[in-house]
Every structure is written in C-alpha cells, then in structure tokens.
C-alpha cells in the first residue's frame, strides 16, 4: 500500500505540485497460511508526496486495526527524501522505516519495530506510456551485530481506459539477518515482497479496487510464498 503516489505524481504532471490520498483496505487471510491466523482486519494508509526545487519528499503510514476489539494494533511509517542538484537523471535517495506493534501473541504488551535506514541512488523513467521508478541502496538497522544489507525497490504505474483504470504496484527485495534462535543470527536471508494494485476510478477523487500482497521470507516464521488479497477504497485530495 505504499510508494505508488510517489511514482504517479513524479512521472505524470497531475496539475498539482503535491498530492495525497487516504486508503482503507480489508485484509483477507491466506487460506494456505500457517503463520497468520485471523488476518481479517482493516488497514488504513495515508500517503503524501511533495516535490520542490531540489528533489521531493514522500511518506506514508499504515495502521492495522488488528487488535482483539478491532482497535489499532500496528503502525508502520516510511519517510523518503530524494535530492537532485544536477541535470543527470539520477537522484540521491534517503529513507527511514519504523513503527510500533501492540498485542503481540494476544498479550497486552507492545514493542517498537526495528528502525531501518536506506541510502543510495534513485531514478524515474517511462516506457510505452508506463511509468517506472527505482532505487537501490545500503540498508542498515540499529542492531550493531547485524552485518551490511542491501535493498532494491521497483515501482510501476499505468492508466487504462481513458484513465478509468489504474494499475500500480511495487517490488521490494532485500537481505537481512535470519534469526532461527532469539540470541544470534544464523546467516542472511533474502526477503521478497510485491503488492500489485488495481483501481477503478469512479471519480478523480474516489477509487475502488484492491491489491494482493505476495511475499517470501517476509512473514515471521514463514519460508513459503504467502498471498494476502485486499479490497479497498481510495480518496485522493
């Protein structure tokens, strides 16, 4: 549910210099998943993008209403800044990821999510009327025992049927320590996650659609491919 506004606004001039949207998704449980029980809950996403004379700023926050009484139990944020003082079509990308989770294992206690930083080059381009953006960089956390890691992100955007249908999505791949025991990491693992979206634009400000979260090594304890579909609505303003 992320990174899409950044691409669509930066590649296609949508008559505004900034943009934001609010999404509400219903997350369905993967019937074949052994790791996510009772995933059926609502997720709210707020995205905001603002370009300026030396680059652009993008951030989003996801809130999962996954508590025992459908209250918010997880908040996750990504904040990105691209800087470009030159004509060469590559910018400097800096990113922060972090958040909080509550009601772990149905207890009344919470915990912060590990914060992650990413630094590297980024670029945006179009091909056959499809918009693309990508960045790659060094990925680092706050745990000193973890070695260096790498992340690559790729996003796409395409309007169809006289802008009535929008196809969007992102693909992330990164390395991180693989903890088979709580104390020490047991080597590295490759994490893959992609979220293709489809939206029917009822009006310029209102869309209906959804996405499919497809991941490998992203869900804690899972070593198989996980698929979680959603149905959602999006309000753009």
TrEMBL record:
Pfam families: DUF5020 (PF16412). It comes from the Bacteria. The keyword Signal applies. This is DUF5020 domain-containing protein. Residues 1-18 form the signal peptide. Keywords: Signal.
